């Protein structure tokens, strides 16, 4: 069984096609049971197939000396060439009892154990897709075979499962392995919706790849379709797969880890080939559902998802911490401001040093009231008094001619002075700065505008 556990063993099982010639006899002289297995004409072919699979997966084929107990010991497998002796033919099609030499149109026994007796064949849609591009700057080609609606859980909407399925095939990525990387496990969801973006549609791919050497890789890809300009970018978005390619971690492996990103594209010619390759009685319904989902995304633009309350659940239950706004006048006469969140909580025996937050060039990074968690909430909850500098760069201050050097030379010293007025001159401050704010605090310290003795970290 493949996975993240230490064991990397895989059980290979094939359907038998033996004659009903097996015998179990009791030797009266020795009181021993003698067993003669039935003749299996396909046994050599199955062994060769197992050996080929083992080589592709980079493993070693181990065969037991004893006959498996999961088969009929005396023969009588379900596969045969006629309905007089067996249930189905070697292709897995179930014989129709009323009409000899004919098969049941809606039942199949899959010899590769991908479906069960009684599964409807017409509920499965098969699609082939070829995508090309570059991952980590290196050429990549994926040959995918998708089996849509391979499973339909009880109580689920069949219209949704028809846009979900399993993925097989192989990948050519010479930069990692000169041989093909075979897909040993794969899933696809062509209409995935996230509650935070109910108007967008996603197509998610997740593939587990295996090489001849035994290495395992995980490829995760996403097509993002946004309802902009009435689908003007629809073709590009629906045919561009953004992927990440990583080595599957194995506890006993010492090989170099791979972590790459890239894009794969479906060309117009390959798109036409995929359309032609669609098989299954429900291919018309599949195409209709897919087109409906794309039309809903690009043309109708109606949200999806359970419940249309897009507010994070914590917002309705907890209020944002109250704050006090202080206006400050810098040494060059500019009015700026600083927002303060007081905290009465004392962790341990001593009160925590205040934290000063400095934003980047534009936008707010730390105070995010519409989010369930932000840095201001986290600091206040952990006993830190928090102050947010709203420098002359902030949108609420209509400043004109200034530079980032002015923030480091005038604005930061002004807020440090205000902190000393609120507490004491000897208190030290933790500074968290982002982007241009980080550059400004460096200018303040290295330019001597703020003493390093005032900074805790």
From TrEMBL:
SUPFAM superfamilies according to UniProt: alpha/beta-Hydrolases
Gene Ontology MF terms in the entry: oxidoreductase activity
Cofactor(s) the protein needs: FAD
Keywords, sorted A to Z: FAD, Flavoprotein, Oxidoreductase
Domain of life: Eukaryota
Name under which the protein is recorded: Uncharacterized protein
InterPro entries per record: AB_hydrolase_fold (IPR029058), Cholesterol_Oxidase (IPR052542)
Keyword flag Flavoprotein: yes
């Amino acid at each position: 069984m493949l996975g993240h556990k230490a064991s990397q063993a895989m059980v290979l099982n094939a359907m038998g096609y033996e004659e009903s010639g097996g015998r179990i006899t009791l030797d009266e002289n020795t009181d021993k049971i003698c067993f003669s297995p039935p003749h299996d004409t396909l046994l050599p072919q199955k062994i060769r197939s197992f050996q080929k699979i083992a080589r592709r997966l980079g493993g070693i084929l181990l065969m037991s000396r004893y006959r498996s107990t999961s088969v009929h010991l005396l023969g009588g497998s379900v596969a045969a060439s006629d309905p007089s002796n067996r249930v189905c033919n070697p292709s897995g099609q179930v014989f129709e009892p009323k009409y000899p030499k004919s098969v049941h149109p809606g039942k199949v026994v899959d010899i590769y154990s991908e479906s069960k007796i009684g599964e409807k064949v017409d509920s499965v849609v098969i699609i082939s897709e070829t995508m090309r591009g570059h991952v980590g700057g290196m050429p990549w080609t994926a040959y995918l075979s998708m089996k849509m609606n391979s499973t339909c859980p009880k109580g689920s909407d069949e219209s949704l499962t028809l846009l979900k399925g399993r993925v097989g095939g192989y990948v050519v990525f010479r930069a990692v392995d000169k041989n093909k990387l075979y897909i040993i496990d794969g899933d696809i969801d062509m209409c995935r919706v996230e509650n935070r973006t109910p108007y967008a549609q996603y197509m998610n791919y997740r593939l587990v790849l295996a090489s001849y050497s035994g290495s395992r890789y995980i490829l995760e890809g996403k097509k993002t379709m946004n309802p902009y300009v009435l689908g003007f970018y629809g073709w590009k978005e629906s045919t561009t797969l953004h992927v990440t390619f990583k080595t599957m971690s194995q506890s006993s492996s010492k090989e170099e880890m791979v972590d790459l990103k890239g894009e794969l594209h479906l060309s117009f010619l390959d798109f036409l080939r995929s359309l032609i390759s669609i098989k299954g009685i429900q291919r018309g319904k599949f195409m209709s559902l897919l087109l409906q989902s794309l039309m809903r995304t690009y043309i109708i633009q109606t949200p999806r998802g359970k419940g249309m309350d897009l507010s994070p659940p914590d917002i309705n239950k907890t209020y944002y911490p109250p704050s006090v706004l202080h206006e400050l006048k810098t040494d060059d006469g500019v009015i700026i401001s600083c927002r303060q969140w007081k905290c009465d909580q004392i962790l341990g025996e001593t009160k925590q040093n205040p934290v000063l937050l400095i934003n980047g060039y534009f936008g707010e990074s730390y105070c995010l009231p519409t989010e369930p968690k932000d840095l201001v909430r986290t600091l206040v909850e952990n006993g830190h008094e928090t102050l947010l500098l709203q420098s002359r760069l902030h949108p609420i201050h209509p400043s004109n001619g200034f530079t980032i050097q002015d923030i480091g030379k005038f604005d930061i010293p002004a807020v440090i002075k205000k902190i000393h007025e609120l507490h004491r001159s000897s208190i030290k401050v933790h500074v968290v700065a982002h982007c241009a704010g980080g550059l400004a605090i460096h200018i303040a310290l290295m330019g001597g505008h703020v003493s390093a003795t005032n900074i805790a970290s």
